[in-house]
Amino acid sequence: MYIILVYDCGEKRVAKMLKLCRKYLSWIQNSVFEGELSEVKLKELQIKAKLIMKEDEDSLIIFKSRNEKWLEKEIIGKERSSIDNFL
């Protein structure tokens, strides 16, 4: 499934969350990631994120779609991380 993930964490946890999310998804902008994940990998990511987060202070929002083709993406300005270069 295609995932867009957005997080908002306290300063002390931001670097850990960034590192975790980069293992699973492509970083597209500050605290925003996208990519294809299986249900199992998504669940793994959620469990690991909960260990980093303080649920009463931080948030993690996950948008899911069956396929990227169902979303239209328009970029205005510089794209932080292009995923077109993968072989």
Distance between the termini: 20 Å
Main-sheet strand order equals: 2-3-1-4
Largest sheet: 4 strands, antiparallel
Spatial extent as radius of gyration? 13 Å
CATH topology of the domain at 2-59: Alpha-Beta Plaits
Q: In CATH, what is the class of the domain at 2-59?
A: Alpha Beta
- Let me know the average pLDDT: 87
The CATH architecture of the domain at 2-59 would be 2-Layer Sandwich
> How many strands in all?
4
Extract low-pLDDT stretches: none
Fraction in helix:
25-40%
Which percent range describes the beta-strand content? Answer: 25-35%
Oligomer: single chain
Which structural category fits the helices and strands?
A: alpha+beta
From the spread of the alpha carbons, the general shape counts as globular
Order of helices and strands: EHEEHE
Query: Helical segment tally?
Result: 2
Describe this structure in words.
With 87 residues, the chain is an alpha+beta fold. It has a domain of 58 residues: Alpha-Beta Plaits (2-Layer Sandwich), CATH 3.30.70.240. It has 2 helices and 4 strands. The protein has a 4-stranded antiparallel β-sheet, with helices on one face. Strand 2 and strand 3 form a beta hairpin. The protein is globular, with a radius of gyration of 13 Å. The relative contact order is 0.28.
